[in-house]
Amino acid sequence: MIKTYFMIVAAEEWRIMLLGARGSGKSSTGNTVLRCNAFQSDMQLSRVTQFCERATGNINGRPVAIIETPGLNRIGRTEREVTREILKLLMYFFCFLPLSKIIVFIVG
Predict the structure, then answer these.
(1) Containing H/E element for 38?
(2) Which of 30, 36, 77, 79 is most buried, taking the most CB atoms under 10 A from its CB?
(3) How far is CA 95 from the centre of its chain?
(4) What's the pTM?
(5) What is residue 106's DSSP assignment?
(6) Domains: count for the chain
(7) How far apart, in whole angstroms, are the C-alpha atoms of residue 15 and residue 97?
(8) Are the beta carbons of 13 and 62 closer than 8 angstroms?
């Protein structure tokens, strides 16, 4: 079962970060939110995001940035490598950018 959590704070642009296990639907969720195929999603566990990817769009006139992260259980990369990639993104998110409007965590 996929659980989705939302944290809402004030900002101009919505920034959505997708976290979750490999195959949990992060790419599909990003594509659904943006209403386009910004992230590759082919329903196969063998094809997964290896590095953080960013896509942008507009929802009702508001700019939205979606950041997709590698699966937390990514095969072929160590847990340390995946953790480092995500921590790098979190530092960028919270240290160098204004506060995010929404952060979505997908845990599957």
Answers:
(1) none
(2) 30
(3) 18
(4) 0.70
(5) E
(6) 1
(7) 10
(8) yes
- Which positions ≥6 away from 107 have C-beta within 8 Å? 2, 3, 5, 19, 20, 21, 24
CATH number assigned to the domain comprising residue 82: 3.40.50.300
Question: What's the pLDDT at 57?
Answer: 93
The pLDDT value given to residue 56: 92
Calpha distance 53→41 (Å, rounded): 13
Nearest to 17 by CA among 108, 86, 95, 73: 86
Domain that holds residue 71: 3-107
* Cβ count near 71 (within 10 Å): 21
Walking along the chain (108 residues) 10 residues at a time, the average pLDDT comes out as 50 78 86 91 66 87 85 73 78 65 61
40: which residues sit within 8 A by CB, 6+ positions away?
27, 47, 49
CA distance 88 to 92: 6
The pLDDT value given to residue 52: 81
